[in-house]
Amino acid sequence: TCVVDLLGRAGRLADAEAFIRDSIFHDEPVIWRSLLASCRIHRDMERGQLVADRIMELQPSSSASYVNLYNIYLDAGELSLASKIRDVMKERGVKKEPGLSWIELRSGVHSFVAGDKCHPESNTIYAKLADMLSKIDKLTATDTSGTKSDDITRNEQSWMNWHSEKLAVALGLIHLPQSAPIRVMKNLRVCRDCHLAMKLISKSENREIILRDAIRFHHFRDGSCSCADYW
After folding, report:
1. pLDDT tens, position by position, 89-108
2. Architecture of the domain spanning 3-92
3. Which terminal CB of the chain, N or C, has fewer other CB atoms within 10 Å?
4. Are strands 209-212 and 217-221 parallel, antiparallel or unpaired?
5. What is the pLDDT of residues 121-166, one digit of tens each?
6. What is the pLDDT of residues 160-214, one digit of tens each?
7. Residue 4's CB: how many other CB atoms inside 10 A?
8. What is the domain partition of the chain in residue ranges?
9. What's the pTM?
10. Quick one: how far is CA 8 from the chain centroid?
11. Cα four-point dihedral sign 62, 68, 71, 72
12. In 3D, which of 68, 12, 58, 78 has the Cα closest to residue 36?
């Protein structure tokens, strides 16, 4: 999987696919998922579709390949194809795994889902989150690189603002001292909006944020991420 990831980073997707097919691990979904992630980053829709189909054969009930293929189509502007993927998921009874993030403090482990308001400090967390988002909005007002898609509706953006990792980071900013890095774990791949937000928060708050998602560790510091925006 690491070899496939390295080849994918170099844009050598054909070599990565050949490596998988020639290896004894060609029936392992995780190695194909690595290639699928590379297909999305390099916008290789045709290969991405074939790779996603292969993963669906190996793990028909796993939502990850469907979601990745949906995003590939969405990035390519193929909205009708993206819509069909959602229909296929419904037909096959495949449900997207809910995103869950958690952070460990002295008081214990605190977990969140998107839009979570069950935490006893919920009001304080959302007030801190609003302050965080206000600060990064000021940063993006002068730097529009990597900003959000025009296709995102106001409701969708509001929901992304409440993604679980943002809530966990807000709690960390409230309770952890300035010198302590904020460490958050997530069960799914971090979305692009949250990845961009984490970079901006690390800059606006002058804090180190370490986010471990389903793909890799992300070390955010001074507006940059250790993954170099490849994940």
Report:
1. 999 999 888 899 999 999 89
2. Alpha Horseshoe (1.25)
3. N
4. antiparallel
5. 999 999 999 999 999 988 877 654 444 444 444 445 555 789 999 9
6. 789 999 999 999 999 999 999 999 999 988 988 999 999 999 999 999 999 999 8
7. 25
8. 3-92, 100-225
9. 0.78
10. 18
11. negative
12. 68
> Using CA atoms, how far apart are residues 222 and 203, in angstroms rounded to an integer?
4
Could you tell me the two tokens for 181?
């890095």
